[in-house]
């Protein structure tokens, strides 16, 4: 049941309740992860293989570390043609959206001969972490791999823990196949993150690691950040629904539960102008949850981190939403497209009653790797831009530098950096020039 929460206070205070949800990382977890990372830094393959055997129960070596072509082929036999069709369709949707994020290099050519610009270059090596074992998320492969490949990343590899039989889940193999990724390492956990962040005798170091994982994986990514780049430290999932009095309570209840089923810390919030709608949504929640497999998780998440906030008008609803800065924002109002100008902070926005959030998880084309816990105020969804880097360049002729030299020298000296000033001054030291001419 959604509890009606008090909104007769500062909206920023209301937002704090929903932004402070995070799985606590105990000192024991952090210490364990740091020990794993240090061991792999010092001992490479030997430490990595020991951890895989300990945590996954799989005897690994440099000979079976990668999924072989035979394993690939055998695994794909267990994926039916219709599922492959769905993966191809999803990939096409994601490509169609993310293609528009490509940005070219550019240059400025001034009349005085100055040339300046920016080079846009893809990262060379990216690793995609995909949870494995009993859980399998082929959508994770598509959402991370497609923008990386569109950006032009040369080497995209997957690391994923194996099942008890030492095999990678077939639907992960299928998603990799659809994306054209051939290198899959049968490793996971903090040990996998450490191995690709620092490299081992067998595994080459990468430039960036992306993808979700458990608390050990998330902690490891945080620890190796700086040695490599990462996508983000994602927190528990969340959805916020803004609805007017005409919204369908059946749809709202279904969408709230779709996020609440992720885990016990998931957040599901309704902001509406109608007290009656809250009551109707609660009736639907009680009815629909009975048929769902993760009933207990849904009920706990909604009880602890859900809620309904009734506001006097939609302007207040969007103002409150902007303070919360949700990962997923659904707008179930009349003329939802007209509400876009009111939205400042949200990871991904779903407009209208036939654009539910799960569509974005799989098939709409927008990315489902999103900022959580209020970080949508300053972070964006994963995109092509996360897999490129930008280098500025400039060229100044001597006569143009001469017009700047005195100002640059003064600026440098004001900061006490005489070496900087000298770097400019020596280029216009006429005595030095005359001496060089005499010696030549």
Automatic annotation (TrEMBL):
Sequence positions that bind substrate: 237, 259, 262, 328, 361, 415, 420
EC number: 1.1.1.23
Key words, A-Z: Amino-acid biosynthesis, Histidine biosynthesis, Metal-binding, NAD, Oxidoreductase, Zinc
Cofactor entry: Zn(2+)
Pathway(s): Amino-acid biosynthesis; L-histidine biosynthesis; L-histidine from 5-phospho-alpha-D-ribose 1-diphosphate: step 9/9
Active site, renumbered: 327-328
Pfam families hit by this protein: Histidinol_dh (PF00815)
Catalytic activity from the UniProt record: L-histidinol + 2 NAD(+) + H2O = L-histidine + 2 NADH + 3 H(+)
HAMAP family per the UniProt record, alphabetical: HisD
Stated name of the protein: Histidinol dehydrogenase
Gene: hisD
